[in-house]
Amino acid sequence: MTMLSLTNELGTVLQLFMRSLETGSVYALAALGIIIIYRTSNIVHFAQGSLGMFNTFVVTYVFLSFRLPLWASTLCGVAAAIGLGFLVDLLIIRHTKKVSPLAKQIITLGLIMVFLGLAPMLFGVDPLSLPRFLQSGDVNFGGASISHNAILNISLGLVLMGILFYVLQKTKMGLAVRTTASNEPVARLMGVPTRRVTLAAWALAGVLGCLSGVMIAPTTTVTTSLMDAVQVNALFGCVLGGFQTFYGPVLGAYIIGVGRNFLVYYVSSIWGEQIMYLLILIFLIFRPNGLIGKKFIKKV
Amino acid sequence: MNDLSSPFTNAKPALWRNAYLRFVLFGLLIATLPLFSSLGLMKSSTLNYIGNVLVYAVAALGLNLLLGYAGLISLGTAGFMGLGSYIAAYIVKDMGMSFWAALVAAVLIPTLIGLLIGLISLRIEGIYLAIATLCVSEILLKSFEQADSITGGMQGKSVSYPVVFGHAFNRSSTYLMLVVVLTLVMMLTHSFVNGQKGRALHAMRGSEVAAQAMGVNLLQYRLIAFSLATAYSALSGVLYVFFVKFSYPSVWNMNLSLYVLAAVVIGGLRSIYGTVIGTFVVWAVPDLILKNLPVVGGINGLPYIFNGILIIVVVMFAPQGISGLWPLKKKKKRQQVPQQVPPSGKEAG
Q1: Distance CA B181, CA B173 (A)
Q2: Does any domain span residue B4?
Q3: How far apart are CA B237 and CA B181, in angstroms?
């Protein structure tokens, strides 16, 4: 009897953990987009969620109107994300070298308004729905049942991030991104094409936002507030992990995904999320630069 | 204090040189708007939009104090506005107490939380501080959604127009109340930033180390800055709930905090009138002006797109905000420079 309840318990924990990994992947993809923009353009990308929302609308619209398969619709969304990322950088970000760092953040707010207006204009005000990639099928192991779709989402997140980190650390392109991130003017002097790096960063952030949108869409409806929670949690992932590395925010996002689900299940379904955020605050008081943050040296 | 000291060097009448009188005149000017509405010269709904601008301007002035003068950033405005609005609604509606009790409690309780954030701000800096305040705001927002018995949960909470000194207010008199409160807040802000505490905040923004060397207590002034900003936000929330007559959790999300921040940056840091203008650009321009344009206004969502583009353009081409474009402003600044020297000289001596 006790053995049975123990295995039941293990199954629940395992199931919770896998589900947390799924939400964690969504947050992590969004957080990675934010940190890439932060490191290359020095902008906290508050519009990451709104851009992702808009591109998810593109995916849903193509899927529902042209009856394309979901993977093809997603490719259309990815293409739209790349195009929009290019546009944002070419039209706006490139011309803001002289704008104060604070005012730069306001630009992303302007972008939020633009996309909040564009989405209902182009796709209507009714909530749309997007199905999962894999409609049915569950895997049972260790007393936990996990849908095929969840496994796909988790592995997609991990594989994508694996590829990105490989590119960042091991290739010449990644070196260009890292030098731009560490010191943009010097990188430009050394012949790193920083403009192209920034352009690519905006496109990449758009793609990551779109994918996180497509992952989260089946759990709810596609509306303009689709990505609000993702945006906020991705930002929290960034401070939890620290803004100084690329992998810190990803780690932070997974921690939030796991921590939130466990607190909601085991502690309180009403106050779990607030407790998670409170813990982040307390953690920040003890480590003001995040988990993997290096200390800022203040100049006098 | 030096405003009236040299009336002959300036062509303007002495009356106009007094900043407080200018605030009163400004208040009187916007107080006349309900008159136009009742005469049928202005659409009745316009008053609602202007009223909203007055409400948000109070919160924006608070953020401008924090950001412009103290150089500290906060994305918690929305949470504190919401907290103020729910406390006020709960006290008036569920506890049946007076408007004044609601006002005091709804401003004091968030201010205490603001003090705590002031403490935190000594440890956490820059973007981390901004997101830490966002974290507080999100905790409050989630609590608004969950604490059904107090906040009414997702259905929101409704109240009626306030009853002040036995008078049951209607829409016009509530509007006048907003005007009076905003004018008072503008005066208070003006006297604060031009006084000794405002100077200390200025010094802190320039260099914390230098400010400390001159005897500015960092902790004390950060606490003052954060508690004032939070008190303003909470007051703004109280005004909101009595003017709009409801409070939904979905109103108090991150975007609202960002809009308030945008109003401050667009209007211009450290400018009181600029902040009001910035608030007008963010909240009233899409509904009041853009929606009434012939082609643009008819299409769903287009006013917001234009407003977003407007915000981006202002930030890109007017880094000092709208108040920086004001041609008089530069002249005034040049005149003020010699005035600023003697007091500091006196202090040094």
Answers
A1: 12
A2: no
A3: 13
**Cβ neighbours of B297 (radius 10 Å):** 15
The Cα A135–Cα A146 span in angstroms is: 13
**Do A239 and B311 make contact, defined as CB atoms within 8 angstroms?**
no
B27 within a domain of the structure (yes/no): no
Chain B, residues 106-125, CB within 8 A of chain A, namely 120, 123-125
What residues form DSSP beta bridges with B168? Answer: B163
Q: Which among A102, A117, A284 has the least Cβ separation from residue B128? A: A284
The CATH number of residue B280's host domain is 1.10.3470
Q: Which residue has the tokens 């395992």?
A: A14
The answer to whether residue B38 scores a pLDDT higher than 90 is: no
Phi, psi of A146, deg, nearest 5: -125, 135
Task: For residue B61, give every residue at least 6 positions away whose Cβ sits within 8 Å of its Cβ, in sequence order, or none.
Answer: B185, B186, B189, B232, B272, B275, B276
Q: Do B301 and A277 touch (CB under 8 A)?
A: no
Pick among B254, B312, B313 to test the A interface (most A CBs inside 10 A): B312
Query: Closest to B304 (Cβ–Cβ): which among A116, A239, A296?
Result: A116
In sequence order, which residues have a C-beta less than 8 Å from that of residue A125 and are 6 or more positions away? B300
Task: Give the minimum alpha-carbon distance from B164 to chain A in angstroms, rounded to a whole number.
Answer: 36
The string of pLDDT tens digits covering residues B271-309 is: 888 899 999 988 888 777 777 776 666 677 777 788 888
| C-alpha B25 chain-centroid distance | 19
> Within an 8 Å CB–CB cutoff, is residue B138 touching chain A?
yes
CA gyration radius, chain B: 21
Residue with tokens 């960002």: B258
β A138-141/B157-158 pair status: unpaired
Judge whether residue A10 has pLDDT over 90. no
Which chain A residues touch B255 with a CB distance below 8 Å?
112
Cβ neighbours around B293 below 10 Å, total: 12
Rounded to whole angstroms, how far apart are CA atoms B64 and B96?
35
Contact B258, A112 (CB under 8 A): yes
Q: How many domains does chain B have?
A: 1
In a domain, B14, yes or no: no
Residues 6+ away with beta carbon under 8 Å from B182: B27, B54, B57, B58, B276
Tokens of A23: 């939400």
For B21-35, write each residue's pLDDT tens digit: 888 888 888 888 888
The domain of B228 spans 42-284
- Of B282, B242, B223, B247, the closest CA to residue B60 belongs to B282
- Sign of dihedral through CA atoms B65, B66, B69, B70? positive
B296: in domain = no
Q: Chain B contacts of A235, Cβ < 8 Å?
A: 131, 134
Q: Minimal Cα–Cα distance from A137 to chain B, Å?
A: 34
The residue assigned the tokens 């939400």 is A23
Compute the nearest-CA separation of A152 from chain B (Å): 30
CB-count exposure of residue B95 (10 Å: 0-12, 13-18, 19+): exposed
Amino acid occupying residue A34: I
Locate the domains of chain A by residue range.
26-224
| Identity of the residue numbered B41 | L
Chosen from A57, A109, A227 to mutate, greatest number of chain B CBs within 10 A? A109
pLDDT exceeds 70 at position B212: yes
